[in-house]
Amino acid sequence: MAALQIRNLKKSFGGLPAINDVSLEVAPGERRLIIGPNGAGKTTLFNLLTGDLPVDGGSIALFGEEVTRLATHRRVHRGLARTYQIITLFQKDTLERNIALSLLGLSRTRWNSFGRIPEQFREEAAAVLSRVGLQALASRPVSEVAYGERRRLEIAMALAQNPKVLLLDEPLAGLSREERAGVKSLIAGIRREVTVVMIEHDMDTALDMAERITVLHYGRVIVEGSRAEVVADPRTREVYLGH
Amino acid sequence: MSRAAWLGVLAVLLVGMPWVAGEFYVNLTSQILIAAIFAASVNLLLGYGGLPTLGHAAYVGLAAYLSAWLYLKLGLAHWLTAPIALAGTTLMACAFGLIALRATGLGFLMLTLALSQVLWGTALRWVSMTDGDNGLRGPARPFNLDDATSFYYFALAVTAVSIWLMARFVASPFGATLQGARDQPRRMSALGHDVWMIRWVTFIYAGFWGGVSGLLFIYYHKYIHPVSLSLANSAEGLLAVIAGGSGTVAGPIVGAAVVMLLKNYVSAYVERWNMLMGFVFVLIVVFMPEGLVPGVRRLWRRFRSVT
After folding, report:
1. Residue closest to B133 by CA, chosen among B59, B229, B232, B234
2. What are the tens digits of pLDDT across the range A49-60?
3. What is the pLDDT of residues A94-131, one digit of tens each?
4. Pick from A73, A113, A115: which is nearest to B192 by CB?
5. Which of A126, A140, B126, B208 pairs with B137 at a CA distance of 20 to 30 A?
6. Which of B40, B42, B16 shows the shortest CA–CA distance to B29?
7. What is the third-level CATH fold of B22-306?
8. Which CATH number is A66's domain given?
């Protein structure tokens, strides 16, 4: 059974098709890279997968369960987690509290309107931050940490939920070479049980992180295959180099 | 001085106040306490939820009307009227929340205003039930709280419990998700939180505390008029929160005190007190845009760092 199965997905904005009949399957534990030039529909595809945007047509299934009409938070409870291209964190809160909000998302404790956030959440948050090398900054507000550390926190918040399918939207965007290396090794260290689907604009940087690659162009899948197949395909070169 | 020490001093001052102050000031403080619960309930929506409401007086008025009507027209005792009024107000908040939370921001503001105006119009025009523009007059206070001091202690106890419960609410895991939904609603959904439900529960909770304030209001004044549900009353609550500092526990209490002092005390000396209130509000926004409580804290920190 596929971890993620997309069939004939469609989405238009004012008559302009952003996702046009996209179908793809991602196997459990697979590392899938979705590439394409600006405006190819990569982030729109993620937004459809998470339910941030309603689909115009087609279907989405997570481990065989149809989730096309489910609200975003319900998909998360079924094991879907994501990061954002534009960092979306709780700026005034500490790193620890950001992780706690992530942990609360899947816990019944989130409805407790009288007690305090349990100590166990602090300990779990500390463990997650330690995993991504941010434990020393746990009590610092997000607004006071560097951009690269915020990127790591984004990933840590998703990982804190022990997702089955993790969607990473340009996790290397805006990072220095050293920071990229750090984030790449962080992604490489994600447990094999987690299926990872990653968008990356810069093909050269991300190719070595993927097992299979899907090339999107004008909302359509134009090439799909292994790294060697995709690199060798003339349509990939045409999309990226224009010849 | 620690926070506990400050609270201890405040408690001593509030408990000891009737021994040193005259009846006028005791009554004035009772009104400030009632307004503080109201402002704190507005703050749950505005300060912690990022939901600016302009119709919260509806819950004050509804609880007061229900309590007075049940007492005067059906002859029910207070031990029955109070829970029924609170239940009715909370149910109304459930229904209003379903409508108002179809929007956020300005849309939410306008929907809360429109819904409260429906109640205001009903109170004014449904004369057979509400006595229209004459208002409902005459319900006695419960527990023989007829003198200023005993009512003051009653209001003080209810206010202390109300503020404590609201403070616990915002400091709880649910409160953390509420503030998360205020700052990054999309991110909160992506973390598995049902943002709409968080807001709806808060809307109902805030409506309930608005109702508690309404009960104290009718017990204090022994009279309720449609003006209590009006836009002006809702705006006063909003003003108190913004002036005192939204998103803080103490802010709405201080804001309510400022508004009530201007309204009830300064108006005795200054004919155009409304103008003065506007002027004070402008001063606060210009010099302490975050509100009096956070503003004073900021100045205090600066003073401490200099000395």
Report:
1. B229
2. 999 999 999 999
3. 999 999 999 999 999 999 999 999 999 999 999 999 99
4. A73
5. B208
6. B16
7. ABC transporter involved in vitamin B12 uptake, BtuC (1.10.3470)
8. 3.40.50.300
